[in-house]
Queue: 3 jobs
Job 1
Amino acid sequence: MNFLLTRISSETLDGLHPNVTNLFGTGMAIGNRIYGPQGIVSMFQAMKTKYYIKLLPFSVATIGSIKKESLPTDQCLLGLRDMEEIYNLQNETDFPLSYFSGIQAANSFLEAKFAGKMNFFNDAREGLNSEGNLFDKEVEIIAINVDEKNDILAYLVKFAKGTPKISKSKLASSGISGKLVKEIQQKGEIELNGRKILLEEILEEEFDPISVLVFDCVSVACIDGLSKSPHLDTPLKGQHKIIAVIHMTSTDIV
């Protein structure tokens, strides 16, 4: 699972803290990643004494204006993917000194301890594309800094363009049924009643890719910051339609 924080405050963190502990206890913490604005990595490093080994499966990284290749080493905390090794670390004499002293010391300790075992590491940077956005085959999540002074992020969630499905009504009107449906899916075309029918002819209409904006608006200044973002240029031109804006704000700002 990926957790994305819009800002660092008790309001945004209260729900995450018990989740970190509970997921560890149920064995569901492996591979989880936490992203957020500047300061998130140093905050979790400082809280390691509170979590102890419960934070070890998680990887934490800064997300936002920094491109992946430019992300400093102190802007990411490595995690581990092996619960047995996580428990074993408690018996290492140099574990507390290295793991709790600082970000780079913690990462260096894990890298040295598990050198050559790259599949042991959970690295949140691996979930980012070259632009520094969270990315997989289904979605790209762009962090927009709407208040640079206070490091507040909005998230533009861009869903990938889905593969059009076969239209049942077009199948019926074309007279395609039974084994012919599978055949046209496999070959891309069929011959029926002396006419060639292409797969494209029986697909549903394509829709433009869609986006959802998650907007943590703590002040009117955030509205100005969002409106100036270049990331909104493309959606507003219709190439990537925003279908919903999820606002997190107070009544007076609404």
Job 2
Amino acid sequence: MNTDAITIRARQVQAIQARLAGWAMGVPMPPNHAPDRHHIGYQEFGLSFHHSASIASHLERHGPDLAASAFALVRPMYETLQRGWWFTLCATDAQAAIFVNNDQFRGGSLVQVATAIEEHPPFAGTGFFSGFAQKEWGLYHSFTHGGRAALEVYGHRPNLDPNFDPATIIAVLDNVSRMSAVATMGMCWVSRIYDAARADPIYQEVLALAPYLEN
């Protein structure tokens, strides 16, 4: 496997994440009087960003050798990001209260959550969440739970050296760079409701970065 290409791409993603993290530090948190759904959304975005940073860091350091752990983080990165947008754009105060008090998420399935999010700006009509390829999603799910698709990578004798497709790892890193930006954008989106003067310029910076996330 060409580990150089993986390391190079991981370092590129880390450079993007460093810029995004710098901007995110300038985004004020929702004020104390903000509804729980906005506090939850903001926190979910931060959690998703940290998952994405961990994936890039792990692959930069270990390449394909321990890539299974990076793959296993993709699903929580994605689900946390999706929940952040659902709480921000769709949740009612009652649904947020159930989550805070009972740790029960009432947004429905991944498909239902994606559909609900895409009824609102900035995702209306984009298919950003609902268009996530089922085959790709199945692969990430398998690594999270030790499914067959994950085990096939380790089914090569005479040892357990994993046999990853380098293009698949690069694709994960490309997704990570995009999800990092969308998490930062979410933090800005919530913050703009309460402090547009500070948050909107940062939001525009994140949007301007979008062309550089496409490959």
Job 3
Amino acid sequence: MNAFETTGVDLAGPLYLRNGDKVWIVLFTCAVYRCVHIDFVMSLSTEAFVNALWRFVNVRGRPTTVYSDNGTNFIGTVNLFNKLNWTEIQRTAGVEQIKLIFNPPSAAWWGGWWERLIRTIKELLKRMLGNSRVNYEQLRTCLSHVENVINERPLTTVTEDQNDLIPLTPAMFLRGIRLGSFPEGFSLVFICSRIIRNSSLCSRSYKIDSRESIWHC
């Protein structure tokens, strides 16, 4: 069974990178197991979201139903889907059209099950980065770590009994019981950052005002 068969999607941001570019975080979350898949896009256009959806399907599998708010990029995606010849697609590829369902415009609480995760993503990124700005590669690494932390959160009660059962986590429905932690990665990143900081390229580094936030919102 595809863990993301029924999925909620939302965007957060913008987030400012070191070179001044803006990106938006894209969150896909499973309605059943609360797994998350996190990506980012360079604009709020329909094309940018379609590409993010394509990447999501390539990695996590094809959902049957996607819930979202009434963002113009989501509405634009539905309009594009409706222009396709689904009779021919179903005949040749054997797939059904992904059903996109929008929240009622006056019922924002319908998206509470992904809005809470958006807040968690922001909190984790702020703890990791503070007011620092990163480049694309660093952001991709940070988001993968945030995704792993959220997917390894316990879904059941955690006790102090060492003999108790291992708590269920969303990650278990994605990759079994194997842990996805890479604690030595932080040391490697620190070493790489120090080498870069001491290089001659440092003279071109982007200067950040300590009062400036990485988040626009």
